[in-house]
Amino acid sequence: MDPETMYSRLDSMFTDRRTAAEIENYLRDVLKEAESAGSGELVIAACNELGGLARARGDFKEAEALHMKVLRLLEEAGQKGNLNYATALINCGDVYASADENERALEIFLEAEAMLKALGQDGMYPMAALCNNISKVYICLGQNEKAEKALEKALEIIEALPGMWQEKATTYVNAAEAAAAAGKLKKAAETFAGAIALFREHGVRDQHYAAALAGEARLRFMEGAAAEAAGGFNEAAEIIKEIYGENSIYRLLKENAEKAEKGGGLHEGT
């Protein structure tokens, strides 16, 4: 098997709405086969996907181990400093960001940013995606002005590239979160609405759409619209369930829906 075959099979599994457990079992089988065959390229591909699944379900230790393995294999293959290595660094940073190790995440993201610049990627999509990730970490660190600057750069890149509506919508979500963190609630509401409109226009229900719904729901709750807030949290929870099952994010969203209905305080970060 080669990575292309693996990704084709994964696409079919996602299209068929196979469960996260089924997808993970498939990838573990691929990894075992790749390691037995000594296929480093396939090991890297399988580890990347398994690392993403581990991060999504909150198993940050396993996710870290998988992505660090990818970095080690790339370095052994003489690929340190290339685009594959920069992408692997970003994946590691995502794990630390998800685990609230924001200082470590920022350190890795900035290393990846310097690498992308050296590779001539400053105006390309990988840089825009990284700027989105950097903005989230800055928000968590309370550095809202830096977060907004990172997002401005991301949007500038994305708007100059064709066919990037989904990336634009994702950046809107992050920009709305940055505005909310800075207390710019009107701007946040307008930007969340713009993101939601794009996702609905294209019929996409992914984790970024769920984040937009949850962010808008939080604003509705702050305005005193408890029923609308609960509805938004519930819809976001169902999307997460469709993708990842009843993971920790799903549970927090459902708890926020219940708290909104009862008038209690909400969990942070959802």
TrEMBL record:
PANTHER family named among the record's database cross-references: TETRATRICOPEPTIDE REPEAT PROTEIN (AFU_ORTHOLOGUE AFUA_6G03870) (PTHR45641)
InterPro entries listed in its UniProt record: TPR-like_helical_dom_sf, TPR_rpt
Keywords: Repeat, TPR repeat
Keyword Magnesium: no
Signal peptide interval: none
Keyword Repeat found: yes
Identification of the protein by name: Tetratricopeptide repeat protein
